[in-house]
Amino acid sequence: xxxxxxxxxxxxxxxxxxxxxxxxxxxxxxxxxxxxxxxxxxxxxxxxxxxxxxxxxxxxxxxxxxxxxxxxxxxxxxxxxxxxxxxxxxxxxxxxxxxxxxxxxxxxxxxxxxxxxxxxxxxxxxxxxxxxxxxxxxxxxxxxxxxxxxxxxxxxxxxxxxxxxxxxxxxxxxxxxxxxxxxxxxxxxxxxxxxxxxxxxxxxxxxxxx
Length: 210
Prior knowledge:
The chain is mostly helical. The chain has 2 domains: 1-73, Arc Repressor Mutant, subunit A (Orthogonal Bundle); 92-210, Orthogonal Bundle (Tetracycline Repressor, domain 2). Helices cover 81% and strands 0% of the residues. The chain has helices at 2-8, 18-42, 45-52, 56-62, 66-91, 97-113, 115-127, 132-156, 162-184, 190-209.
């Protein structure tokens, strides 16, 4: 996650020490929580400073304005998501293609159920229509996701050409995004949510294999 922090601090006027990197991470964590709970309108430099008990000038030392902070938060959130997938891929390097696919689906669906993840993604999708930073980050993430899903699908359906792999990957991503929207509304109890997630897993596996 260090590369993400360095990238997020590229507009900072001076270099950053190890202790400063820890402070930057704390700021991004606080900003992400605020963004997930209150959206773009509720995200403010003062709010982040208050949440951490630090001065506004300290936050501005690392992220000079709200848009700089927003872009950093989006990159940080997305890279955490991608890092979890990369870690899973490393752990399952010796597993069979279907085992890797099932494990990846379980990870994505677990993430979709987390309220903070749903809150951040809902805001990003909304912002992408009118905010350049959100649109850039979303495009980066979707491209990386598509490549990951294409590799997973290719493992269980090696005969598919690249065009079909891309189509199936996009359809799987759309299903997961749609599920994230549904779960973010909090409709139904835990039993209904569990049933919906299991149905989504079955559908995703079917898209990949059939």
